[in-house]
């Protein structure tokens, strides 16, 4: 099935993960010739031309000959990864870098080592994000429990104070003072009731009994 222009451009930008400055030095190195074929080297040179001509990857800036080669590049990389992609799982980075498969893919603009690093970094970021969400959720849950505990404690203390609140009523039905028993504090003793001022005045001005006085004649009464 022939791919559309949009599919070809999207596939090329996804699979060719070497930047504009990376393929040219690689193609000039001796390592790039160890794949055993010149087809990949020729393809790599065309890829360099495409990347340099359109560094911003503007879809409208590609010519038809560019799109034709881009379509060829996407097909080769996809087939090669399907056949040799398992090497990422069985070899170390150093071993993978020295395989003919990796050398050939880099000649076609795809660096499997870079791709593997990006995949691992993405997985690590996902794990970190998941751990952060768990930690954040746990912290929020602990905070809610702490707030609920504080609210419950405050409600209990308020209820206890209300239950322990008592009033002392005088005989005449008036409330002179209130004795409150708070948890952890000493009870407040009621102040003695003041005596009526008129009563005190009457008691202070009571007349003393008359003393018998001597009569002029020297006799007492």
| Outline | elongated
Structural class: mainly alpha
Unreliable segments of 5+ consecutive residues: 166-183
- The radius of gyration is 50 Å
Quote the average pLDDT. Answer: 77
The total count of strands amounts to 2
**Largest sheet: spatial strand order:** 1-2
Order of helices and strands: HHHHHHHHEEH
Percentage beta strand: under 5%
| Biggest sheet architecture | 2 strands, antiparallel
Residues in helix, %: 55-70%
The span between the termini is 153 Å
The number of helices is 9
Provide an overview of this structure.
Helices cover 59% and strands 5% of the residues. A hairpin with a 5-residue loop joins β1 (165-169) and β2 (175-180). It has helices spanning 5-15, 23-28, 39-53, 64-84, 87-90, 93-97, 100-107, 112-164, 197-204, and strands at residues 165-169, 175-180. Strands 1-2 form a two-stranded antiparallel ribbon. The protein has 221 residues and is mainly alpha-helical. The model is unreliable at 166-183 (pLDDT under 50).
Structural features:
9 helices; 2 strands; 221 residues; mainly alpha; elongated; two-stranded antiparallel sheet; single chain
Structure summary:
The chain has 9 helices and 2 strands; from the N terminus they run H-H-H-H-H-H-H-H-E-E-H. With 221 residues, the protein is mainly alpha-helical. A two-stranded antiparallel ribbon has the order 1-2.
Topology:
Blueprint lengths: L4 H11 L7 H6 L10 H15 L10 H21 L2 H4 L2 H5 L2 H8 L4 H53 E5 L5 E6 L16 H8 L17
Antiparallel strand pairs: 1-2
Helix pairs in contact: 1-4, 3-4, 3-7
């Amino acid at each position: 099935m022939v791919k559309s222009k949009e599919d070809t451009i999207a596939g090329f930008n996804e699979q060719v993960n070497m930047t504009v400055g990376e393929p040219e030095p690689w193609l000039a190195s001796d390592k790039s010739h160890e794949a055993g074929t010149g087809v990949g080297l020729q393809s790599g040179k065309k890829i360099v031309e495409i990347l340099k001509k359109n560094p911003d990857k503007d879809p409208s800036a590609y010519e038809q000959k560019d799109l034709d080669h881009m379509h060829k590049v996407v097909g080769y990389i996809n087939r090669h990864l399907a056949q040799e992609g398992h090497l990422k799982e069985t070899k170390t980075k150093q071993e993978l870098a020295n395989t003919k498969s990796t050398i050939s893919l880099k000649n076609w603009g795809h660096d499997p080592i870079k791709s593997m690093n990006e995949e691992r970094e993405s997985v690590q970021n996902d794990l970190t994000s998941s751990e952060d969400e768990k930690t954040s959720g746990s912290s929020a849950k602990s905070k809610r429990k702490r707030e609920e505990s504080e609210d419950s404690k405050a409600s209990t203390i308020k209820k206890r104070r209300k239950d322990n609140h008592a009033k002392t009523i005088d005989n005449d039905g008036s409330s002179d003072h209130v004795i409150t028993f708070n948890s952890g504090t000493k009870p407040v003793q009621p102040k003695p009731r003041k005596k009526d001022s008129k009563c005190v005045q009457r008691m202070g001005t009571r007349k003393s009994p008359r003393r018998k006085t001597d009569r002029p004649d020297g006799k007492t009464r």
